[in-house]
Amino acid sequence: MWIEKLTGPLEQKKQYRRQQARLDALAEPYRAAARAVQRYIMVSGGIVDGETLVRIQGDFVDLWERAAVDGTPVRQIVGDDPAEFANDFVAAYTGRRWMDKERQRLSDAIDATDATRSEPER
Length: 122
Known about the structure:
The protein is mainly α. The protein has one domain: c-terminal domain of poly(a) binding protein (Orthogonal Bundle), CATH 1.10.1900.10. The chain contains 7 helices and no strands. The protein has helices at 2-7, 10-24, 30-44, 50-70, 74-78, 82-91, 98-117. The longest helix is centred in the middle third of the chain and has 21 residues, at 50-70. It is elongated, with a radius of gyration of 20 Å. InterPro entries: UCP029876. Keywords: DNA-binding. GO terms for molecular function: DNA binding. It comes from Amnibacterium kyonggiense.
């Protein structure tokens, strides 16, 4: 479908929305903490692969739901450095990241300069 080429697979969007609804249904303080960590992950994680993003989000929501049911203190989940927790969480997943695209863009730009340099001057 042409729209999926532009926006990504519709089923991934549906999964993400269902996962987000589960996150929004968490009791406080888990909802606020999970939203804060999620925002950090979305900004700093750089994931551009929809399949990986949905998998990360699903595992993330599972973690917070279990913690809420068990009554695990938020600090016990994220530790002393919430950013380190978030970075480690995302690092456990492989997938295309924004930096992968930028590295390729840089490499292509440099390759293009090599191509124009090897052309004879007129």
